Amino acid sequence: MWRSIVRGPQPITYETAEGEIAIKPIKMYVDADDDKVEEDEKALATLTMALSPEIAQGFRKLQSAKALWEALIEVYEGNEDMKRSRQDLLRQKFNMFNHVLGESLESQLQRFVTLVTEMRSTNIHLTLIETKNKLINSLPQGWDMNVPVIKKTKDLSRLTLSEVIAIIKSCNMDDKQ
Hints:
By secondary structure, the protein is mainly alpha-helical. It has helices at 2-7, 31-50, 53-57, 65-76, 80-96, 105-121, 128-137, 146-153, 161-176, and strands spanning 13-15, 21-23. The longest helix has 20 residues, at 31-50.
């Protein structure tokens, strides 16, 4: 199915008596031709079913999986200017990331992971130490005692983001006890 999405529908052709390649009439199809057509139809159906009805409605006229895929990319990823704008917005969100008053630690961590994931998916590459430092420095004010301890006792350069998050969660559990 992915080939149908990437390459487009496979035209069913045959060689005429004059030696030219022509589109094969449906009545001349053999089982292998039907399989190719079915593969293209399955790819289109799969993509269409993956969309919510409201979104699918806007793409109803498209007749191939490739055309639908390209239209979705154009609408939801946009052109190069839109991609750059999205990257700029994500960088700004990252730079301004901080704890929100009344937000739980779990919610803040989830929001941070989501932001970092979005940045990676739009080809914004941050160093791991930048990411970890931003997270640690954005912890709530009540963490003022824990942040220096984490920075001094843990070798942040060797830890993954997941390990830093686990340490933060562990400290939070200890504080609650």
